From TrEMBL:
Protein name stated in the entry: Amidohydrolase-related domain-containing protein
Domain Amidohydrolase-related: 59-204
GO MF term (any one): hydrolase activity, acting on carbon-nitrogen (but not peptide) bonds
Domain of life assignment: Bacteria
Lineage of source species: Bacteria, Bacillati, Actinomycetota, Actinomycetes, Mycobacteriales
InterPro entries from the UniProt entry: Amidohydro-rel, Metal-dep_hydrolase_composite, Metal_Hydrolase, Metallo-dep_Hydrolase
Amino acid sequence: MSISIAITDVTVVTGDESGTVHEGWTLLVDSDGTIAYAGPAADVQIPVDAKHLDGVGRFAMPGLINAHAHLFADGRPLSKIALHPATSKIAAFLAKGPLGGVMLRKRVRMNALTQLHTGVTTLRTVGDVSYEVIGLRDQIDAGELVGPRILPSGPLMAITGGHGAPMIAHIADDVDAARKWTRENLDHGARAIKIAATGGVSDAKCIGHAGTPRWTSRR
């Protein structure tokens, strides 16, 4: 084991049920990026060739998990063009075209990096425009890009006019279509399947729409 980084005098937030915090601890990180030691400075010898980072006034904590992410967006309200029934199909067509694909891949890379910089080390997407996040996941796993661990869903499944349709959804109005799109997403490398079984918040048309069942129990 080769220690490459030593972080000293850092406050460690454990994230346990009791809210334990350790002040003035030392962290040693090996060449693979694994934390090899976390504890009092007096109990460890720091290798002379390790890169030293001063942790005074800083905090270290376990990575956060974002279990509901959409990397095509950055948290700001979606455009009216994407949400309006009269223009949503056009917006979806453009987003899934060659030029839209280039812009989309750039956006998901930026948003994934933003997630990492805010402490998220694992995230699950639950509705993508196409399979752009699966491609990003593969690049990160291959070491070609820096980013969090990603469990991508690919496009979600919804009924015609349902939540997310048509921008980020496969249309599944019956059982056969649901099976077809599930196989399609899994074949592309999806690690999660998102089903919009109820109305959503972003495209709700009236009070009470969000959360209202849209799929039958058989589906």
